[in-house]
Each structure stands twice: as structure tokens, then as C-alpha cells.
Amino acid sequence: MQTGIVILLLLALAAANLPFATVRVAGVFKVARKHFGWQALELAALYLLVGLLARVLEAQTMPVHAQNWQFYVTTFALFVVAAFPGFVYRYFWRKPGQ
């Protein structure tokens, strides 16, 4: 496997868990309690950023393949599955008030 692909996969795994790792909205704005809606919005935004990075990397090495909606639904589902460890940490392992 190429190192670029490995780095992209590790970046995607980290980005999927990032919304659940911090109580700040977008990593900048501190709020008293970060609701799940903010985390879902951050998850979608990070999915788009990782997808854009993957498209740029693909364009540098070969012609970009056109994708249908099924590709994006499948990759988003995989991104959500990759976010499961962060979700478990945030809602099941942490004690309330931390």
C-alpha cells in the first residue's frame, strides 16, 4: 500500500473521532455543553474535508473517476463507523461533567 493512502486513512480515522474528543465547537468556540447536533455537523464537515483531500491526492496521481451517490453514501457510512470509538468514549466511558 502506498504511504499516501495509509496517511489518508489515518487522517480520516482521526478526523472521524475529533468531534467527540473536544467540548469546543469546531475546536475553537467554547460552549457549556456541546450538543450532539454540533458533533454531527462537525462530523459531516470533516467528512467533506477528508473527501476533498482524497480527491486532490487522486488528481495528482491519475485522472479523477466520476462517482455516483452510492459511493458517497457508502464512504460516509464507513466514516461514521470509524467515529464509533470517539462516540463510545464521549457518551459511555466519560463521567458526566468531564
Features:
about 100 residues; two-stranded antiparallel ribbon; 2 strands; transmembrane; UCP019883; transmembrane helix; 4 helices; membrane; mainly alpha
What is the gist of this entry?
It is elongated and about 50 Å long.
* Shape, per Cα inertia axes: elongated
Question: Helix segment count?
Answer: 4
- Element order: H for helix, E for strand: HEEHHH
For the record, the count of structural domains works out to 1
From the alpha carbons, calculate the radius of gyration and give it in angstroms. 15 Å
Transmembrane segments: 36-57, 69-92
Protein name: Transmembrane protein
InterPro entries: UCP019883
Pfam family, one: DUF2818
Note down, in words, how this protein is organized.
It is a single chain. With 98 residues, the protein is mainly alpha-helical. The protein has one domain. Helices cover 70% and strands 4% of the residues. It has four helices and two strands. It has helices at 3-21, 36-61, 69-82, 84-93; strands at 24-25, 29-30. A two-stranded antiparallel ribbon has the order 1-2. A hairpin with a 3-residue loop joins strand 1 and strand 2. Helix 1 (3-21) packs antiparallel against helix 2 and helix 1 (3-21) runs parallel beside helix 4. The longest helix is centred in the middle third of the chain and has 26 residues, at 36-61.
